[in-house]
Write a structure and sequence with these properties.
heterodimer; A: about 240 residues; alpha/beta; Rossmann fold; 4-stranded antiparallel beta sheet; globular; B: about 325 residues; ABC transporter involved in vitamin B12 uptake, BtuC; two-stranded antiparallel ribbon; 14 helices
Chain lengths: ~240, ~325
């Protein structure tokens, strides 16, 4: 089923070679290779328990893993999570990982930790993207609606000036309209040139945005294809589109 | 055991709250100057504990970590000052700074491996640290004089100028405690403080935003140790005598009570808690055999009805006033 499609003409942003991760004796992620090109939006699909979140956590070193990682051609395999963020690899975790007792402003300020001098400019850019956050600026993150929390999580990640943004199920628990709004914002960010690796359950929405799709099952990539090719794979189409 | 308040900016409306506890501390100093030496001594202990708890708050309140072993660093400060001043004739202020530096180094050595642990494991490891140092103060008699303790420790002073009475020393302690709070608050509102607040909120999220969690936790631990050391050292100079019991489990329980009663994670909570917990038993002394019961009942009631601590009361009143103002 595996279909090899390279991102022709684009230089590599992130490349993972034979990355694997285990929880105790359970291998949640079998040796897996993938790549993301500059300015590309790649979606990872897969059923619950396929290892999608583990893959993102392994790529950002939040979970210990084996294998090799390259960012813009430079090996980054040994770097811890915070060093990856310094290089521009920033992740929005499942559940958003917001600082619930901090205000919207404070969350964004922490997001700009690595670029403190540019806090105001970055914050203005985030508010341009998510005007509702400006209205809620002194409200605590925990008191925001689910959609607003997700906006804040993405906004906070953008404050860190990412080169590659990884998102783990950003539409999880959101109303369809809010989910659609969030995903269309991601599409806009990608059009501006931001590389995005998106794990998403709402496949039809995600497939509209993605330039390439990896399908993960039982801890390994079983397919790599273009979104419009899913229709021709009846089993995948039945599972993810209908 | 984690921080309840993990913010690092304050709305302008709440800034007045910073003035009133400082004014309260100054008033207590005046009260101490006008009262008997006994009252002055009680207040002196309160402000020494305020310094200790301000440091503990830095690690537990701002950073959201658990430490049951800060008494170890207080012991290093106390015994360090005692040995340097009585045996080696050092100036008390020099001894204070030297022991603070020594505690900082000890905190780096101990904290580097220990802070890899989290939650209850970290709590147990730090508790063990406190017990180990406590045992050392008992068993290493050639250095610490064991249960006999160290006597004849000179009062605080510098280059021959001593603070001879407890009243003089109380003023110095209040100034030092306020300085300690001011430094902690300044750090809390800095980029460093933002990193600590993020760690208290979510370590994975902090890491993902580029914060070197292990490094910042270690720095917070060292700062807390330096505060604890200063408190231990000041205790030694204030009382003129130290023995192992001062730095035992009671100190841990006492400081935790102060921290939670005053308001963990707040700027003034540690000082408010230290003063209340130190003064309250004395105020209830007239109740004789009912004293302990009344004291415990008051602590329980405060923790039930003001779970964010007494420092949170003013914002509660401010909110209540806003809500009841006519439109």
């Amino acid at each position: 089923m595996s279909v090899q499609i390279l991102s022709a003409g684009r230089s590599s942003l992130l490349e993972a070679r034979e990355v694997s991760a285990s929880y105790g004796h359970v291998q949640a992620l079998k040796p897996t290779s993938l790549h993301i090109a500059e300015g590309e939006l790649v979606t990872i699909l897969g059923p619950n328990g396929a290892g999608k979140s583990t893959l993102l956590r392994a790529l950002t070193r939040l979970t210990a893993c084996r294998g090799r990682l390259f960012f813009r051609g430079t090996e980054i395999s040994g770097l811890p999570t915070h060093q990856l963020a310094r290089r521009g690899i920033v992740m929005v975790q499942e559940g958003r990982g917001l600082f619930a007792q901090m205000s919207v402003r404070e969350n964004l300020m922490v997001g700009a930790f690595l670029h403190a001098a540019e806090t105001d400019r970055q914050m203005a850019a985030v508010f341009e993207l998510f005007p509702r956050l400006r209205e809620r600026i002194d409200q605590t993150a925990g008191s925001l609606s689910g959609g607003e929390q997700q906006m804040l999580a993405i906004g906070r990640a953008l404050m860190a000036k990412p080169q590659l943004l990884m998102l783990d199920e950003p539409s999880l628990g959101l109303a369809p309209r809010a989910a659609s709004e969030i995903l269309s914002t991601l599409g806009e960010l990608n059009r501006r040139g931001l590389g995005i690796l998106l794990v998403e359950q709402k496949a039809p929405l995600a497939l509209k945005l993605a330039q390439r799709v990896y399908v993960l099952s039982l801890g390994k990539i079983v397919a790599e294809l273009k979104p419009d090719e899913i229709e021709s794979h009846h089993d995948l189409a039945r599972y993810y589109l209908h | 055991m984690t921080s309840r308040v993990t913010t690092f900016t304050e709305p302008a409306a709440l800034r007045w709250q910073s003035v009133s506890p400082a004014a309260g501390a100054a008033m207590l100093a005046v009260l101490g100057l006008l009262s008997s030496d006994y009252v002055t001594t009680v207040l002196g202990f309160a402000f020494i504990y305020a310094i200790f708890c301000t440091g503990l708050n830095f690690f537990m309140g701002y950073t959201g970590q658990a430490s049951f072993g800060q008494s170890a660093f207080a012991a290093i400060g106390g015994y360090g000052s005692a040995i340097l001043c009585t045996d080696l004739g050092w100036d008390p202020v020099l001894a204070l700074f030297a022991t603070m530096a020594l505690s900082g180094v000890a905190a780096v050595i101990v904290g580097y491996p220990t802070l890899r642990l989290r939650g209850h494991y970290l709590a147990m490891a730090t508790f063990a640290l406190g017990l180990i140092v406590y045992e050392i103060t008992i068993e290493w008699t050639s250095l610490t004089q064991g249960y006999m303790g160290y006597a004849g420790i000179p009062p605080l002073g510098i280059v021959g100028f001593e603070l001879p009475t407890v009243k003089h020393q109380l003023v110095a302690l209040v100034v030092l405690a306020l300085f300690g709070v001011a430094v902690a608050n300044r750090l809390r509102r800095s980029r460093f403080g933002r990193a600590l607040a993020a760690i208290a909120g979510s370590e994975p999220a902090a890491l993902a935003l580029g914060i070197d969690v292990a490094r910042y936790k270690l720095i917070a631990f060292v700062i807390a140790a330096i505060y604890a050391s200063a408190a231990g050292s000041l205790f030694a100079h204030f009382v003129g005598f130290i023995s192992p019991e001062v730095f035992g489990v009671t100190m841990v329980v006492q400081s935790f009570t102060m921290l939670y009663l005053g308001g963990i994670g707040t700027v003034w909570g540690p000082m408010i808690g230290a003063v209340i917990v130190s003064v309250l038993p004395e105020a209830l002394r007239g109740l004789k055999e009912m004293q302990d019961i009344a004291y415990s009942a008051i602590l329980i009631l405060v923790l039930i009805f003001v779970p964010r601590g007494l420092a949170g009361l003013s914002s509660l009143f401010a909110r209540f006033r806003r809500n009841t103002e006519p439109l």
